[in-house]
Amino acid sequence: MRRWKTRRVLLVAGLAAALVTVPAAAQDATRISAVATFSILGDLVKNVGGDRVDVVTLVGPDGDAHVYSPTPGDARKLAAAKIVFVNGLGLEGWMTRLIEASGTRSPIVTVTNGITARKMEDEGEPGRLVIDPHAWQSVANAKIYVANIRDALATADPAGTAVYEANATAYLARLDALESEVREIVARIPADRRRIISTHDAFGYFSEAYRLEFIAPQGVSTEAEVSARDVARIISQVRKQKIPAVFLENVSDSRLVRRIAEETGAKIGGTLYSDALTDENGEAPTYIDMVRHNIRTLSAALTS
Ligand code: ZN
């Protein structure tokens, strides 16, 4: 009988040990799940969310957020998320239907709230103004994204407020350092060489912030077709203004820029990352890597 008793005690002890692990599992369950529409935004949310937030990104590395086709899996990701981050300014035209399809009631946070949107003339229809969604290309704007992400996470998960504030403060300091680095590099590029050809109009905010002139055959979306007249106009502009370099983009068709380079003798200065990060092994796995890569690539081609 005594042996039985001992075994039962052991059994109870085992059960108690199993119960002890439950609070640890429950602690994991306090992590919140967030969806970000594209890789650049996903990286910013990860930096602010840290260990408290699981971030799922819909349009992955090297993906084009302008023309994305959502999958049923994306609707399920949205339905499971406690908070959803979108760029807004017309970047993710496909999101409205996806949100409806998912049935989510979680907050949809537009991270560009508070940013002064750039408007520009549509290439195809002169006189028609379109909103430029690429606000993240100015580091000052990325800081507004980060502040919006911090505040939205704290509202969705008040227990994590101190963590989000600390993470955001540390990351904002890194963005300040990045901004200074970009300005120092631009200052060393001779003023008459600060002209660049890229594929689509993704660098308007970058251009305004850092005083580099970008000319792109394609408009602010990768959706529009480029007309022969636009290409001819750019070719003559490159020749007339002696524009030194043209650049490829990871989300756009490279043929157009290669043709402009061939016909004008401008050199191909490398690849710029406009709307998407690379995977971990690429040149731009994070937002900070992306901005640093872009300015160094531009500077190398324009100063040599
Ligand atoms: Zn774009």
Describe this structure in words.
With 304 residues, this protein is α/β, with parallel strands linked by helices. The protein folds into two domains: 28-180, 3-Layer(aba) Sandwich (Rossmann fold); 187-303, Nitrogenase molybdenum iron protein domain (Rossmann fold). Helices cover 49% and strands 15% of the residues. The protein contains ten helices and ten strands. It has helices at 2-29, 39-49, 72-80, 95-102, 139-156, 161-187, 204-210, 228-241, 255-264, 287-303; strands at 32-38, 53-59, 83-86, 108-110, 118-121, 129-132, 195-197, 213-215, 245-249, 267-272. The strands form three sheets. The chain has a four-stranded parallel beta sheet with strand order 2-1-3-4, sandwiched between helices. Strands 8-7-9-10 form a four-stranded parallel beta sheet, with helices on both faces. It has a two-stranded antiparallel ribbon with strand order 5-6. β3 (83-86), α4 (95-102) and β4 (108-110) form a beta-alpha-beta unit. The protein is globular and about 60 Å long. Residues 1-26 have low confidence and may be disordered. The structure holds zinc ion. The site of zinc ion has 7 residues, from loops.
Brief characterization of the structure:
It is globular and about 60 Å long.
Quickly count the helices: 10
The portion of residues forming beta strands comes to 15-25%
What's the oligomerization state?
Answer: single chain
Strand order of the largest sheet: 2-1-3-4
